[in-house]
Amino acid sequence: MRLSVVIVNWNSRADLLVCLESLTRQTHENLEIIVVDNGSTDGSVAAVRDRHPSCIVLEETENLGFAEGCNRGIAASHGEWVAVLNNDTVADREWAARLVEAAEAAPPSCGMLQSVLLFMDRPTVINSTGIALNAWGSGDDRREGERLDDLAAEEIFCPTAGACAYRRAMLDEIRLSVGWFDRDHFMYFEDLDLGWRARLAGWSARLVPGSMVLHKYHASAVRHGQHWMLILSHRNRLRTLIKNASPSFLLRTMPRTLEELLRMFRVDGPSTLLPLARAVIESGRQRRVVSALSRESRRAVEATWVGNGGRPLHDARRATETTHPPPVVEARS
């Protein structure tokens, strides 16, 4: 199987070259590698063309953001499955092979595969095994900070786009007018948004424990600054909720939303209001499209996945019953 790999880059020449070098050592050789460069000024494009001439390089003239960079790469790709890989990662030799094996064995309803991300400076510690949808409508990294022990292939809510693969048929089915990934997100929450939309459309996701990458973690985000990160992440969380959450979930998460809106106003003042209003209006338009794509009810998806540590409710219940059997004398209504 041909696997397309999309890597978005912005002024990270050294990290990018290390990442690409790890892809040259893959045991699975049928890779289509696409680098989307978002207007770098550090010589990234010239270095890739010189050292990795087999790579497809899309040279953009400005920083389009991670979401739109991925969209450009996906549009240029040809594989049945499209992997997305952060430019600050180093892929294990078996990374692609394990993804391809999982893709070939996946049922038709599985549209997302998650690699295991490990901290680059602590390679036995997990960075993420996918996204867990929490009670406030944000995404937590599953098993972050845990030691790398035995991992099993299991169902997850959705992948983090730092190292994962998407079935092209799924991507094309759930594409919005703003792209496969919502380009208006720029970065942050774009993978949760896509994964949540895919879940609503009836697609599933699985962890592939043998597919591993080392991740430098927040290497690009740090360069933007905390102020920028706070405003964008709060706004994108609201975008994601408006498009995908049920009315009851929107209501339950309102305290956190109001808290974040107040924080945004304190940090950015009145200038935050117009971009926020535009985000709300556009997300409302996209919500109608997501509703038309949906095969599962919003409430059913939330009931299965919210607040279970990144495991589906039936698995969480089974684990609880096995580890902590309920007292015989205690009845619950």
Any key phrases for this structure?
333 residues; alpha/beta; Spore Coat Polysaccharide Biosynthesis Protein SpsA, Chain A; two-stranded antiparallel sheet
Structure description:
Strands 1, 2, 3, 4, 5, 6, 7, 10, 11 and 12 form a 10-stranded mixed β-sheet that branches. A two-stranded antiparallel ribbon has the order 8-9. Helix 1 (13-24) runs parallel beside helix 2 (44-51). The longest helix is centred in the last third of the chain and has 21 residues, at 273-293. With 333 residues, it is of the alpha/beta class. The chain folds into 2 domains: 3-222, Spore Coat Polysaccharide Biosynthesis Protein SpsA, Chain A (Alpha-Beta Complex), CATH 3.90.550; 225-305, no CATH class. It has 13 helices and 12 strands. Strand 2, helix 2 (44-51) and strand 3 form a beta-alpha-beta unit.
- Count every helix, treating DSSP H or I runs of 4 or more residues as helices: 13
- Gyration radius over CA: 20 Å
* CATH homologous superfamily designation of the largest domain: Spore Coat Polysaccharide Biosynthesis Protein SpsA, Chain A
Q: Label the overall shape.
A: globular
Topology:
Layout: E1 3-9, H1 13-24, E2 31-38, H2 44-51, E3 56-60, H3 66-76, E4 81-85, E5 89-91, H4 95-105, E6 110-119, E7 122-128, E8 131-133, E9 139-141, E10 155-156, E11 163-167, H5 168-174, H6 190-200, E12 204-215, H7 221-224, H8 226-244, H9 247-252, H10 254-268, H11 273-293, H12 298-305, H13 313-323
Parallel strand pairs: 1-2, 1-4, 2-3, 6-12
Antiparallel strand pairs: 4-11, 5-12, 6-7, 6-11, 8-9, 10-12
Helix pairs in contact: 1-2, 6-8, 8-10, 8-11
